[in-house]
Amino acid sequence: MRGKTLRQLPFVLKHIFFRKHPVEYDFFSGTTSVGDVNSIIRSLLKREPLQDGPYISAYEQKVAEYHGVSHAFSFATGRMAFYVILEALGIGKGDEVIIPAYTCVVVPNAIIYRGAIPVYVDIEPTTFNIDPKKVEEKITPRTKAILAQHTFGLPCDLDEIIKIAQRYGITVIEDCAHAVGAEYRGKKVGSIARVGFYSTDHTKMLSTSTGGMITTNDEALASRIRQIYLRTLFLPKGMIRKILFTFCAENFFCHPRFYFIGKWFIILCHYLKLFHFFYDEGKIVKPTEYPYPARLSNIQAKIGINQMKKLEQNIAHRREVARRYDSVFGLYRQQFNGTNVDRKHVFVRYPFLITDYDSFRNKFSKYMQLGDWLRTITIGRSKDFHEIYYRTGECPIGEAVACHSANFPTHPKINNPELIITFAKDILESGALIPPSSINKSKVI
Fold it and tell me: What is the CA radius of gyration of the chain?
């Protein structure tokens, strides 16, 4: 009986992995490849250093060259990179940092970890970025910085924000978490304001599973960042191994061809605590179970080098997939008809507004995850906003946009967007698509 079962095993495996199953798209590990996984395995077999090592400086140099800046510093997450910037700027107890009311909760958390106070400014509904016209009214003598977030990969109005900041002698920090490779007036974001940072977690433009980077041309600020950087610890080796395992496993489990079964393995790995992610989104106290901030590991930096080599191809793919979606929705025509040369959108996702997110999520669930990024004013927190210094009703545009936010994936593993385009047509024909311009102060839906 056992022999018969073993003889049948190849046919069972063939049925699971080679039978034509419907593809199922998600948002994770879209930039990873078998080559990246092989690179990790070779490094581990050769016993290359897990923590500090030569790939780190090589990665940082490549990032600096790409952005046209003098300095780049890698960290274990984007939020940690932001925290280090705040520390280097001397931002601490009682200081205020202006941020958009449409972001990830790790942004106000990092500010709170420094003892400072996040101050929220409403957004432009057509760009999902901070509204420069509303920034100045929130500036006080305690304001030390403005966070210029390039939401979903579309650069914000940096010229206007920098002008305001210069008038008051405060620093602009570019949040490029969504926007590596995006351009504003011909310059890469992250190189325009005094300092910038970005994330390389498994949902972003680049993926090192977890990771972050600071970029700057400011020599004095770079010197202070370097002092912090040199005394910053690496994550424990066991945690780094889990991060590398997570990277390798997700490359397979999240592939559109295998996600139908891979998602159950992902749940199992989470349950068995085989994966590692940073789950500090709900915390208003700095984590103590690992170094915070922490530096990026050597092997992750090696992955980063590989990812940087493919970045321009990655961006071109995302823009082409977004163009296909936009042929239905028509929300970003200026990005594709050549009339908007000031801001190059990289479309980490294709965002739009929808009347009934839950019904369409359920309708599409067999074939794709409908994106749920930024479905509150600080995604990752859905209640008790007073704990992060936000008053309900303070930023009505951001709240309305968050209630109706949805997005489609654009990453390189979306090799046939036709299926998602049919879903886009379904949304449009049902009248569920909301024009962003319809959301304003007098009409919040």
Answer: 22
Could you tell me the strand order of the sheet in which 405-409 lies?
Answer: 405-409, 349-354, 433-434
* pTM summary value: 0.93
* 201 and 336 inside one domain: no
Q: What whole-number distance in Å separates Cα of residue 370 and Cα of residue 19?
A: 25
Q: What is the pLDDT of residues 97-150, one digit of tens each?
A: 999 999 999 999 999 999 999 999 999 999 999 999 999 999 999 999 999 999
Helix, strand, coil shares of the chain, percent, nearest 5, are 45, 15, 40
- Residue 350 sits in which domain range? 311-438
Q: What are the C-alpha distances in Å from 147 to residues 111, 298, 354?
A: 11, 29, 27
Rounded Cα distance, 349 and 63, in Å? 22
Q: Do 193 and 319 belong together in one domain?
A: no
Answer yes or no: is 249 within a domain. no
Q: Decide: residue 292, CB within 10 A, 0-12 exposed, 13-18 middle, 19+ buried.
A: buried
**Cα atoms found within 13 Å of the Cα of residue 214, Cβ hemisphere only:** 31
Question: Per-residue pLDDT tens for 361-396?
Answer: 999 998 999 999 999 999 999 999 999 999 999 999
Structural domain ending residue among the three candidates 231, 263, 283: 231
Token digits for 382? 């859905």
